[in-house]
Specification:
There is one protein chain. The longest helix is centred in the C-terminal third of the chain and has 17 residues. Helix content is about 35%, strand content about 30%. The protein is built from 14 helices and 13 strands. A hairpin with a 2-residue loop joins strand 9 and strand 10. With about 375 residues, it is α+β, with helices and mostly antiparallel strands. It has a domain of about 140 residues: Apoptosis, Tumor Necrosis Factor Receptor Associated Protein 2, Chain A (Sandwich), CATH 2.60.210.10. One of its GO terms (biological process) is cellular response to salt stress.
């Protein structure tokens, strides 16, 4: 039987506490529409001539527009200017957001002609402008002049002090998931097991498990136990080509979604050997996460004695990142001679000659 997994899986998440806050800017908004009638007559008045709107109140403050339909001088006679002003004699400054735009024949504001700004107004700075709203030829070509009238819309928002509201979210302390421990006890106790694996050459070692758990975790086991494969209903399955220790670790992962803690307790050489065997088994049974965990462990265990056998496994089981790590180790360390003297390199040369050729090419480049 496999030992009970007491350590939480590496994918477990800490319980989170929740809170939220909202930043808002209190504001008062008002809109004023200023219609300039007899537009042709106004245009004939010449550069520098201006027309003034009525005074309008927004947020307790009085405002006005002064428009220069013929520019402010002969040099700017082709540009429509506007002055936006505060008419009150205020003690404190006031911050406002202003949008001044032309209205088209449907009463829709222009998207490209106009002025939009945020500014503080005070007793010493009561005006903005003259600011250009657009070129007069563009204004007339865009059909903003209707029945010899031009309408300007001014939207003013008085911006007051910002406010942050912290919202208290009611919550209940939720304990972390212990599903992996419950499944681990199920594997350890052996209650309800319906299949036994005889693993290893000769008599090997017996491991009992649950078909439904294996099928849920592995597509290969699912096809074996619940597919049309011959012997799917067998209660005993013999596996000769996997080490019992590796199969025990594979079952541990299936039930706990983590590597067995014993892999951190054994010496480095034994841990690398176990990870190599476990990677092969993970690939065989379609356990992609376990395969990646083994890749990571093997990457961190690369040395002169292990790199050749690890490279062979990486190539045979399509572990591209692990293969690249092996290449980088040999090339960067310039220790190919030492690697070639290991038994693992002879295995690599016999089983993966193309990889050896690729490795030598990288070293010599």
């Amino acid at each position: 039987m496999a030992s009970s997994p007491d350590a939480p899986p590496s994918s477990s998440s800490e319980p989170l506490s929740y809170s939220s806050s909202t930043w808002t800017m209190e504001k008062v908004t008002g809109m004023h529409r200023f219609k300039i009638a007899e537009y042709k007559l106004v245009r004939a008045m010449g550069a520098g001539w201006s027309v003034r709107s009525g005074i309008f109140n927004v947020g307790g403050y009085d405002w006005s527009l002064v428009c220069h339909p013929n520019g402010t001088s002969e040099d700017t006679a082709h540009i429509f200017f506007v002055v936006f002003g505060l008419e009150n004699d205020v003690a404190d400054s006031v911050k406002v957001r202003v949008e001044i735009v032309f209205l088209d024949e449907n009463g829709e504001p222009s998207r490209f002609l106009g002025d939009r700004f945020v500014q503080e107004f005070s007793r010493s700075h009561p005006r903005r402008g003259p600011a250009p709203l657009g070129r007069i030829p563009h204004l007339e070509a865009a059909q903003f002049i209707q029945n010899d009238c031009l309408t300007i819309q001014c939207t003013v928002s008085i911006l007051k002090s910002p406010h942050v509201q912290v919202l208290k979210t009611p919550s209940v302390a939720v304990p972390p998931s212990d599903l992996h421990r419950q499944f681990g006890r199920l594997l350890e106790d052996g209650a309800g097991t319906d299949v036994t694996f005889q693993v290893g050459a000769g008599g090997g070692e017996a491991f009992s498990a649950h078909r439904c758990v294996l099928a849920a975790r592995s597509p290969v086991f699912k096809a074996k136990f619940f597919g049309p494969m011959e012997g799917s209903s067998a209660e005993r399955v013999k596996i000769d080509d996997i080490e019992p220790a590796a199969f025990k670790a594979l079952l541990y992962f299936i039930y706990s979604d983590s590597l067995p803690p014993q892999m951190e307790e054994i010496d480095e050489e034994s841990a690398v050997s176990m990870a190599q065997h476990l990677l092969v088994a993970a690939d065989r049974y379609g356990l992609e996460r376990l395969k990646i965990l083994c890749e990571d462990k093997l990457c961190r265990g690369i040395d002169v004695n292990t790199v050749a056998t690890t490279l062979a496994i990486a190539d045979q089981h399509l572990c591209s990142q692990l293969k690249a790590a092996c290449f980088d180790f040999v090339v960067s360390s310039r220790i190919l001679t030492a690697v070639m003297e290991t038994d693992g390199f002879e295995h690599l040369r016999m089983s993966c000659p193309s990889v050896v050729k690729e490795l030598l090419k990288k070293v010599n480049s």
